[in-house]
Amino acid sequence: MKKHLVLLAFAATTAVSGAKADSIAAGIAEYRAMLQDGNPAELFEMSGEELWTTPRGPKNATLEKCDLGKGPGVVAGAFVELPRYFADTGRVQDLESRLLTCMETLQGFDSDKIAKTSYNKGEQANLRDLATYVAGQSRELRFNVPQGHEKERDMYEVGKRLFYLRSGTHDFSCNTCHGEKGKRIRLQDLPVLSSNPGDGIGFAAWPAYRVGNGQMWTMQKRLNDCYRQQRFPEPDFAGDATIALGVYMGVNAKGAMSIAPAIKR
Amino acid sequence: MGKPMRIRAKASNGKTNVRALMAHPMEGGQRKDGSGNLIPAHFITDVEATHNGKTVLKAQWSTAVSQNPYLSFTFDGGAAGDKILLSWKDNKGDSRTDEVAIK
Amino acid sequence: MKTTRREILKTTGALGTLVSLGIITASQAQAAAESRPGFASKDLAGALQAIGGKGSESDKVKVSAPDIAENGAVVPVGAASELPGTTDMWVLVEKNPTPLAAGFTIPAGTSADVDLRVKMGQTSDVYAVVKANGQLYYAKKETKVTLGGCGG
Amino acid sequence: MKKIKLSVALLSLAGGLVACTPMQKSSAEYDKLTAEALKSFHSKGIAKVERLQQDDSNRLCSQADVAGQPLDAATAKSIEEANFKAIQWPSDGKFLGDWKVGNKIAASGKGMTWKSKTTSNNGGNCYNCHQITKEEVSYGTLGPSLYNFGKLRGVTDPNSPAAKAMVEYTWGKIWNARAYNACSSMPRAGHNGVLTEDQVRHLVALLLDPKSPVNQ
Questions:
Q1: What are the domain boundaries of chain B?
Q2: Per the domain annotation, does D202 fall within a domain?
Q3: Does C89 touch chain B (CB under 8 A)?
Q4: Which residue in A66, A102, A174, A226 is the catalytic one?
Q5: Which of A154, A180, A234 sits opposite D44 (nearest CB)?
Q6: DSSP code of A73?
Q7: CA distance C19 to chain D (A)
């Protein structure tokens, strides 16, 4: 496992060219490899596991009957098949969206209120830990986001259109930064997301612990901050735009191995 | 009171390796908050590990230890099922002790 | 059984098992901080003086740190000693505002080999200083800290 | 090769029909669903939902990106012409400012997000995508290297008549990159009100002043 991650880290940095850049890249790869042991994401996973089995909310219930797509209570392998269509809500839902549904139906929480709460605060912090736990239960599994339902295919097409949507004060789209191989912002490697970026890169690396600010970020938070830097207005938490992008990236990443929860700079 | 630690203790070849993650902000006291006020230092000052009641490591830390600290060390002996206790206390008087069985 | 993975026993605030780690007040903590030699020193020389010096450089002392740290907030650092009778170890980051990052007491039977993560404000030498049979020895290594990101 | 791929695609589509999967929606129907999904954004701070409304240039380039086809020459030309017409040239005729200030603007990536307090004092984001000086090794590679930009183009005296065309091009490119390349990824810094006339002046100096580190 550890060895595999080291290789991934090297692969991610080999794009930098030139002799000086090579030694920088090798150094950074060494640094990333050293970080793999003892990823603080495990603290959030632990918290999430406890939240999953603890009776909470107005209904004082656990989430152990939550259906993440593979039947009530099945957590292992659920993450790599999300987002997917759920008949009970009639919606395509990603991990965070589905957890919100379970928190509402099983535990009696107000999901709209949680969605509007600031990230890292209150029940949002609990949702973050739950998402980290669920993702960790698909570690090293390969993405297989379903496209069998019409609404799942619709969301892929919508996600694709959103990915290429140039707008805002800087005319940026997702594609501006994530459309071409081997590109960087400053020294930061950019994964290509319009095709399969490979094992443990892009969609297959989130949720991730970010060492820079000591925060655990889910994919919803990752997309939220992308849109902030894109100078767009804010996407609703677990709204259709972010879920559609999740479908687009997840389907593109078919077969890629999940390393979530990962650790990032 | 702090959040639970993540502790793993594994015995092999007559030694036990302990790896721990502690949930703590390790605030350095140099940063400012949104309104420009200095965020006061908040950090773990002392760590102690015991194996079956015997101290196997003591540490003193500064604010320079990273947020959500990681610690790894190894001691002689230890058998599967033995108890490892890890404790920390911080500069605000908060403390936490967690226990794990050696695997 | 939800604790199978970790078997955690919450004893926060309980004094019983560890006499040395009771609940202390903030003022007591402050007093404790003052009794921590070297931690308040603002330069390497002062920090080293407070712990008794740095002794001589020894290849029996190892400091592991990356050549380059992509983010100074988290730099993996290890200190190890092959010297018999190692009782104390310190990790210092020369260019940090207060260089002494951590000190370890190594009881007999514990390997003089610890790993942790420290913050580094800038490119700097990282020191491991150890005390073995009452004598001090050290090793050092430079880690470059890069900054990146796009501000936003 | 292309033809073979296409026929395989047709075959698999036919296979899908046999298996009674519903008809694929038209691109226009997906566009409509996309417009619906865009309602799941909300204004925050200075970043209002109006920012999602695309102008013709962005709309046409996004459509081409989705289709995976470059724009046809005529459409590209009309986008470039419209953007060129919209370039505001320096009101006082002065194109060059202070390269030192320009370098600071180039290094800053700040401004215009929902966390930004004002719409002024924005950074140029230049180093995020371009190599600019030799000294700064932390640069992005989404855009071409701008190191020696003026030197390579033979600009020895930016105030000379010989340099006039290059000076104007540099201004125009920073102000509105789409005037020269219909679907360029470069932000239209002046056109979209991210950078002021003064700031653009300093950036032109950064690229063209022979004393600038760019041209050393």
A1: 6-27+39-101
A2: yes
A3: no
A4: A226
A5: A234
A6: T
A7: 48
Tokens of D185: 């990824």
Q: How many CB atoms lie within 10 A of CB C34?
A: 10
The helix/strand count (H/E) of chain C reads as: 2, 9
A46, A49, A118, A264, best to mutate vs chain B, most B CBs in 10 Å: A46
Q: How far is D162 from chain A (nearest CA, A)?
A: 32
Q: Measure CA of the first residue to CA of the last residue in chain A; give whole Å.
A: 20
What is the CB-side half-sphere exposure of residue D126 using CA atoms within 13 A? 28
Q: Does A212 touch chain C (CB under 8 A)?
A: yes
- List all residues of chain A from 156 to 215 with a beta carbon under 8 Å from chain D: 157-158, 160-162, 164-173, 175-177, 179-180, 182-188, 190
- For residue C109, the chain B residue with the least C-alpha distance is B76
- Which helix (DSSP H) or strand (DSSP E) does residue D177 occupy? none
Angle subtended at Cα A118 by Cα A115 and Cα A121, rounded to the nearest 5 degrees: 105
**Residue A66 annotated as catalytic:** no
- Within a domain: D60: no
CATH number of B6-27+39-101: 2.60.40.10
Nearest to D62 among A166, A179, A232 (CB): A166
**ipTM tops 0.85:** no
C5 touches chain B (CB under 8 A): no
Percent helix / strand / coil, chain A, rounded to 5: 45, 10, 40
In a domain, D82, yes or no: no
Residue D168 lies in a domain: yes
Cα–Cα distance between D159 and A6 in angstroms, integer? 54
Q: What is the pLDDT of residues A84-109, one digit of tens each?
A: 999 999 999 999 999 999 999 999 99
Q: Which fold has domain C41-145?
A: Immunoglobulin-like (2.60.40)
Task: Average the pLDDT over B61-89 and give the result.
Answer: 96
Bridge partner residues of C77 (DSSP): C116
> Given an 8 Å threshold on Cβ–Cβ distance, is C115 in contact with B73?
yes
pTM for the whole thing? 0.86
Dihedral sign for Cα A198, A200, A205, A210, please: negative
For the stretch D71-101, pLDDT in tens is 999 999 999 999 999 999 999 999 999 999 9
**Token pair 């519903």: residue:** D22
Q: Do chains C and B touch (3 or more CB pairs under 8 A)?
A: yes
Whether the CB of C35 is below 8 Å from some CB of chain B: the reply is no
The answer to whether C61 and C3 are in contact (CB under 8 A) is no
User: Which residues fall within 8 angstroms of residue A203, CB to CB, at 6 or more apart?
Assistant: A143, A193, A197, A219, A246, A249, A250, A252, A253, A256
Q: Is the pLDDT confidence value at C78 over 60?
A: yes
Asked if D95 and D167 count as a contact pair (C-beta separation under 8 A), the reply is yes
Boundaries of every domain in chain C: 41-145
- Dihedral of CA atoms A41, B95, B64, B25 in degrees, nearest 10, equals 40
Residue with tokens 């007591």: C28
Chain C residues closer than 8 Å to D128 by CB: 150
* Cα–Cα dist C111/B57, whole Å: 10
